[in-house]
Specification:
By secondary structure, the protein is mainly alpha-helical. The protein contains eleven helices and no strands.
């Protein structure tokens, strides 16, 4: 148990983890500054930023930032040591490879959670500074949960591929590829698959359903589905809904419910690391 606690503390104190926590908090501070810098000519009573607007603004930044930070956190806290042989010296202490996987993963997720809580609190202060209204608690919970799932999902994928590949360069290359495919280029991947494989007509409601389904297949896509659930709008998907105001939709009609978001979010947080744990246990 002492060795497990040591690894937990060691990971949380890692300079790489601390730097990435600092980046998340810094971006939160910049977003807070942007939210607090609205036009002062607007009367105080009319200063209003909708919850949907806040979520959309935050997603535009965190949706890109969290995946890349989680990918490099996974590589630097586990993947690099796994392929360089450093873990072999670690497991000479009374801690198994399986325990090491779970300990470092949990520590990294805790670090992401702490940074997200602080960043969201700062964003809330920025919102209040301008509009004199705090972000609703339900929205804060949604923001933290969404990007915790996204971070843990990418972190788990890097851990998993660290056990499927043998060299540091391969793990680093695949880690970057995971970010490019599942985050930065996911919209393009979705479009190509829908058009070329399923021959969907972009702009149709069926294509929106396809996008929702594909979104659940990526941690970044999951975040987009949460945005659609919160805003009841297809705007983030790029699909215009004919005859509706502001592309409004009923998320439940497309399978986006609290239950589906909860189940799939939990799966993204635990399934990759469970598979990694099982692979590690085989070699204990």
């Amino acid at each position: 148990m002492n060795s497990i606690l040591y690894e937990l503390e060691r990971t949380l104190r890692s300079k790489f983890v601390l730097v990435m926590m600092g980046i998340i908090i810094l971006i939160g501070a910049l977003l807070a500054y942007a939210l607090s810098s609205g036009p002062t000519s607007v009367p105080r009573a009319d200063r209003f930023i909708s919850d949907n607007g806040i979520f959309t603004i935050v997603d535009a930044i965190f949706g890109v930032l969290i995946p890349i930070l989680a990918v490099f956190m996974g590589y630097l806290t586990y993947g690099k040591d796994r392929t360089s042989g450093v873990l072999e010296s670690v497991v000479t202490r009374p801690v198994t490879k399986g325990q090491l996987v779970l300990t470092r993963f949990i520590a990294s997720v805790i670090a992401i959670l702490i940074a997200l809580v602080i960043a969201t609190f700062i964003i809330d202060v920025g919102q209040y500074t301008y509009s004199y209204k705090f972000i609703p608690a339900s929205m804060i919970e949604a923001l933290i949960w969404t990007y915790l799932v996204e971070g843990a999902g990418f972190l788990g994928l890097v851990y998993l591929f660290s056990h499927l590949l043998k060299s540091q360069s391969a793990v680093l290359g695949v880690s970057i590829g995971i970010y490019l495919i599942f985050a930065l280029l996911w919209d393009l991947v979705e479009t190509i698959v829908l058009v070329e494989v399923f021959h969907a007509s972009l702009g149709s409601l069926s294509s929106l359903q396809g996008l929702v389904n594909f979104n659940f297949a990526s941690p970044s896509g999951y975040a987009r589905n949460v945005v659609m659930y919160i805003t009841s709008s297809s705007t983030i998907s790029g699909i215009s809904v004919a005859g509706s105001f502001n592309n409004s939709i009923n998320p439940a009609s497309y399978g986006i419910t609290l239950v589906s978001l909860g189940v799939i979010g939990f799966a993204w947080m635990v399934v990759p690391v469970i598979l990694t744990y099982m692979l590690a246990k085989r070699f204990d």
